[in-house]
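Entry for adenosine-5'-triphosphate complex. Fields follow.
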Amino acid sequence: MPKGDLGIDLGTASFIVYQRGKGIVIFEPSVVAVAVKTGEIVAIGEEAKKMIGKTPEYYKAIKPMKDGVIADYKTIEAVIKEFIKRTVKGSFLFKPELVIGIPTKATSVERRAVFEAALNAGARRVHVVSEPLAAAIGAGIDVTKSEGSMVVDIGGGTTDIAVISLGGVVVGDSIKIAGDAMDEAIVRYVRKKYGLVIGEPTAEQVKIKIGKVHPDMETYEMEIKGRDAVTGLPRTDKITSEDVMETLQPLVGTILARIKAVLEKTPPELAADIINNGIILTGGGALLRGLDKLMAEELGVKVVVAEDPLTCVARGTGILLDDENLLKVVAVSYTR
Ligand SMILES: Nc1ncnc2c1ncn2[C@@H]1O[C@H](COP(=O)(O)OP(=O)(O)OP(=O)(O)O)[C@@H](O)[C@H]1O
């Protein structure tokens, strides 16, 4: 494939684009600002995110990805078009080949819609690959082996659990409990315990900066700014890592229960491989302090956090741009 071809991770939290021969060239929040009257896209990513809550009446900020799936195909088409424009500068006739990660549970109709959106956006050929497979490839796993590997990808909208062998997902599950649900839980907790109304971006900062899910991890404190739930006036308060741990416990508990259920459905031979190789954690949620330790204790299996877990899917699609044989095994390809 020529340089300029793209690997794309359309995440609930971030859009990440890998350009062949260059590496990651776009890493933006998956937010789009649209003109209310015309429906025209006015900003994508960081610029659009800044407009949330501050947009004048004639702009609205939308998140075209919801719970890990594409909620708005027309916008995604425009987003892909914009990515092609930004990366394939100057060469108007060049139509890139795209590798796009899609959720495991995407139906054939949704897969087809991704393909249509990408072709309409100006792609020459489109390959779609299941996200946990792309994440595993990005994490350096040889997915074509008969040996089983387990990948748990904790993103913004979804947690994907997949047992992979011979280039496919043998057993898997996808649940709508991931980073966003954690942020929402922190918002509710702070309101209940401290009588303080905070926004989800503040909750996310708390989770990232001082969050933990294992008691052995160090405890920190953080000042949070919000609005008093009773008086409505702005005020600050303090939250600790222990608070976050208490808040996230039920969510992490559910994720662990679903991983256990997948392990129980895994054929014994592959389960033995997983015990030997451990579970690979990818996605932003993998960075939650103490999650690997908690998982290892609760599941009795070694847990490894992939290097740079946030970019595993995008780097996986990038590796596929360079490996046509692997692409044939793991992806579904379309040309008009
Ligand atoms: N250090 C951290 N600790 C805990 N969570 C983190 C950390 N860094 C990022 N996150 C969370 O990871 C999530 C984003 O992860 P990622 O980029 O893998 O998701 P995504 O691919 O966009 O979403 P999805 O896979 O659901 O479509 C966000 O919820 C973010 O808050």
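NOTE: The mean pLDDT is 92.
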